[in-house]
Amino acid sequence: MYRHLPLQLLLGLSVVLAACGEDTPTQPSTAPDPGHAAPSLAITSNSWSPIAPMPCCHGFGVSVGVVPNSAGQSIAYVFGGTDDMGRTGVSTRAYNVATNTWSTKSSQAYVFHSNGVGNIGGKLYFTGGYDEYGSPISIASTWEYDPATDVLTQKADLPLHTAEGVTGVIGDRLYVLPGYCYAIGLVSPGFCNQEEAIRKLFRYNPATNIWVTKASAPHYHRNGVGGVIDNKFYVVGGQDDRRNTTRNLDVYDPATNTWQTLAPLPTALDGVVGAVLQGQLFVIGTTSGGSIRHYAYNPTSNRWNAKAPPPVWGFTSEAAKVFLNGTSRMLVVAGPVGDGFFPDASQLYTP
Asked: In angstroms, rounded to a whole number, what is the distance separating the alpha carbons of residues 202 and 199?
């Protein structure tokens, strides 16, 4: 529920709660917690398992992308994020699902709450986001990360300065639906006329390094969940232009450049994260009363089905699909932030 609240408010809340690619051969910077079961043991369907905690304290607003290493093991790369003081510029962290270990890379991303991450040709692409917390300015940058060299390369900017969006990959194209557009108080290329939610869809071609604008979504999905199923881009939940949680589910068909609205989430959820597993879109979040809910959308039946909620939840969560022992799983990265303000709640879901 706390995923996208201002950091100062989150820190105040913590006081109240207290009172009430290739993988490099470097050693992991954080050893697995003996209290965490190895994720390979989580073989029961519709179940959750804790994983080793993420290194250090920049867990607010991270972005996660996945590339397999030469051994075929899923490596999740965590970009950006801030600590409890709003500092960013943290090193990229890499999680090996098969070994349940973390390592820290040399590359650094000065960004949080980006528009998501997409894997094209073994390289990870992420866009937009905010460059610092004290003065949260959304940016238009596009970054390409090469896991083989641990190098971040800046590519052509997004058409607008945006953040808090979702990303999907169809074929060899990156589809980005931002959630928020930044303004500077005057009409200027690359900025909106006023700070506002946004429904514009953009497509990026890495081969030509060119962005184009596609049909706008029928609803706003700021901080929503996105995923690709059968070459269509599904986007659900998040907030509307008034920052109210939304249940809307919209799907984009690149073949016709059109959107369709489908069955909404059964319950409005805050702080949603999710991923596509086994041809279904899995979404987790919290109700207005703080209860954790987990649903899976079946595009064949156009219905949502309840799934096991995670035993713990972290406000800094992001999710991605990974593979373990030949089975797709959902990795949820949640924290930590600061020196014990909000502990790590990262975990793995087996569908």
From this structure: 10
